[in-house]
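With this grant's support, we have settled on a layout for protein records. An illustrative entry appears below exactly as we store it:
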Amino acid sequence: MKVPLSWLKDFVPIVVPVEQLGQLLTSAGLEVESVTTIGEAWEGLVVGKILTLARHPRADRLQIAEVDVGDGSPRTIVCGAHNIAPGHTVPVVLPGYAVAGMQIERRVVRGIESQGMLCSPKELGISDDHSGIYLLEEGPLPGTPLKDAVGDDVLDLYISPNRPDCLAVRGLAVEVAALTAQPAHLPRSAPQERGEPASMGVRVTIVDPRLCRRYATRIVRGVKVGASPQWLRQRLERAGIRSINNVVDISNYVMLEFGQPLHFFDYREIRGSEIIVRPARDGERFQTLDGTEHRLPAGALLICDAERPIALAGVMGGLNSEVSERTVDVLIESASFDPVSIRTTSRSLRLRSEASLRFERGIDPNYVRPAIDRAAELLTLLTEGEVAPGVVDVYPFPETARVIALSRATVNELLGSSYSVEHIERVLTSLGYTLANVGSGAWNVTVPTARRDVHLDVDLIEDVARISGYDTIPTKLPSTEQPPTSSDAWSAFEERLRHVLLGLGLTEVVSYALTSRESMKRLLAAAIPDHSAYGDTDGALPILRPAALERLIEEAVTVTNPLSADWSALRVTLLDSALHTIVANAHSSESIRTFELGRVYEWAGVDRLPVERSSLVIAVAGQQADTSWVEHPQPVDFWSLKGIVEGVFSRLAVAPVDWKPVEHPAFHPGRTALLTMGGQPFGIVGEVHPVVRERCDIDSRAYLAELDIERLETVAQWSKPEPSSRFPSLPLDLAFVVAEDTPAGTVLSAVREAAGPLCQRVRLFDVYRGKPIAEGRKSLAFSLVFQSLDRTLRLSEIEAIRDGIRDVLAEQFGAMLRDS
């Protein structure tokens, strides 16, 4: 929001330099993004008054002006503009100074010496108008520096959504007055009224008071539409709004002054002398001022006369009732509309304006009347209109001010300050609060209805702190004991798990819980497999119920008013988020190794909250992370991800995990494993299906795992560091020939169990197919390490363990030990 400092001065004295004012406002939560000084480069420019004007004897298009510049010696200036006349006050550049990059000197123009230059608005840098000389309003004396006469500072502020009251010059003036300890002057308008009462000329009906809290109208007759005076044009332009004509400019001016949008109708176009505020009918269409016909969304609010819609409430007026040069009588609308309705309509139709911005953030219904009175007053002054007596004001449920209990002790306890009763009262009173003493240092504080952000005593305390200055609050240690450390077991589990994953070389990702059904449907790349292969999946994550996954996605919880179609539903799986992460990082990173701890959501039925589950997704793609300069980069594979997942299980010390080959619509057939404990599925690991990669525009192979960490948390034991043995270890390599369809993970588990407690480590290091191995069989080679904490192992012990492993594998898998 841009605010000229000269406008603020109408309501509060500015007693500090503009730079300091900007710092005060920013420290109080009203960020000043920049300050533009109009006239900063106007050195040598002064106010001049044209005494005489004559035609140049040797040039038909030039004029010779005698200009008083305040030094007692009128200057002769040759000028080509024709919008000037004797008596006009104009900006003058004296010889020896520059403007718009031009150095001005005395020079002879067709035989006449010109002793300066008169300036257009474009040359002054205040607009793009180069059609004539910039005419100043009467007042400044000749010789006055131009910067002092019409210069200004314009504050460009960022107003946060919770402070709609500061989207107004008057609201900002209250803040400035409080910050600088100056009185704010906020006069009320009282337009002169005459003629037939407004109630005889219009009736107002509000169909749904929930969508329209208040609707007021005034009638102004006999207006003369024309150009606005310079002061009005200048203020609007400096605030970033283009001047149209005096009537339209007044509506914009009052909106900026009060924060209350207005709309002016051509009264002659109001059929039946009636205004009806009603919701749009299903599929209803309306043509707005820009000439576009819109199909209105559900919940849109219309302003209608007795026969037809004439405006889209809070967003844009209609082409059928706009004010034009032929307008004589004006109907003023000042209203308070439901913010949600205006926001929904504005976004749906992509019609954003200064008015809709204010309505979306909330309008104080009690500003409706002062704003409409101010507009009527300005129409009287600037258009020669006559204001009809009275206001037709429909306000079914008047808003009452909130009252909040507050005490000095609470303020100082929360802030760690020692503010006096007088100081707190002075700060809150300067912001417009009304205080009623209810005891020593205690008050019932009545909140101005314009402060939509104040609901609790802590909001009042925040106002005391920011107006007093956060830097005035002393720094001191808490006087009470520190609160106990959180005993939330789940938070502790998540934090420890996070450290494990980071220790495995992964990078944490935090993504939005919102996605879209269309995005999640990309995971359904293959036919839904037989659900019986997954066993009992009651209560499992949605991703572990592939037969129901398509239905779960279709039933995904949707957002009623999404910011965009891409963020319209709550995710049912973290795999979708992980794919977005891979796509976003594929062009900037050769190795992607990420994890996310997040929540997934499942629809639980009408009028019930969705079921939330905590989940973990791990994603790897691209090249292996750990390669040296002597190694060629190798792409990641299934085993890369499997090693990470097993590293997590090892650190959690969970019960033995079974890896079972399965098919899944999101994963590559033959390269996917279901993870189970005690027959219960809790995770899925695999290579992303080629069709899914193509849909996501992922070039290289990618591998994902999603684990139910709520089930992991119930069985996690957290492994402890094993004591180091001072006795030597004995390695043993064994290779077994098994059937081709025998899972290597199952054999590995059997080897680990049969090896017993002396076995410190088991690793599958080779899978071989080919001669002399028979067709339909494969060789699995394992590396085992044995070590004891209390003695040196004998070779005979290791041989006995080897024979036991051989017998177990022969019985379970028909395995044969390879000799070579």
Q: What stands out?
A: The chain has 22 helices and 40 strands. The chain has a mean pLDDT of 91. The longest strand covers residues 591-602.
